[in-house]
Write a sequence for this structure.
């Protein structure tokens, strides 16, 4: 089985918590062996990691703040900085086969890691 991490940038939209829950539910339905989920929080205090997500993922969850400090915009520079920042905790995991970047409005609809 593949060992992989999911990198998930999260923005300030109030709907992000619900979307993150839906995404994690779908991910764990089809890929329960996910090695790590890294949430890159770009909301500056708006997003709170749902307890449901924390309890289900446990030590497989890392939440970091996007280091862009509100400079640039969220789609261009901010997203790139967040992805690069999220790679650091992902790469600390041993022997990952790949890292998948998803958006909060993504859903996993079938197994993909072989």
């Amino acid at each position: 089985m593949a060992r992989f991490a999911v990198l998930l940038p999260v923005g300030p939209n109030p709907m992000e918590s619900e979307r993150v829950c839906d995404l994690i539910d779908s991910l764990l339905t089809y890929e329960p062996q996910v090695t790590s989920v890294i949430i890159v929080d770009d909301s500056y205090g708006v997003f709170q990691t749902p307890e449901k997500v924390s309890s289900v993922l446990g030590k497989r969850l890392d939440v970091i703040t996007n280091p862009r400090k509100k400079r640039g915009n969220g789609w261009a520079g901010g997203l790139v900085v967040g992805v690069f920042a999220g790679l650091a905790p992902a790469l600390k995991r041993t022997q990952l086969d790949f890292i998948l970047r998803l958006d909060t409005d993504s859903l996993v609809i079938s197994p993909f890691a072989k």
User: Anything to note?
Assistant: The longest strand covers residues 4-10. Helices lie at 16-30, 51-57, 77-92. The mean pLDDT is 89. DSSP finds three helices and four strands in the chain.
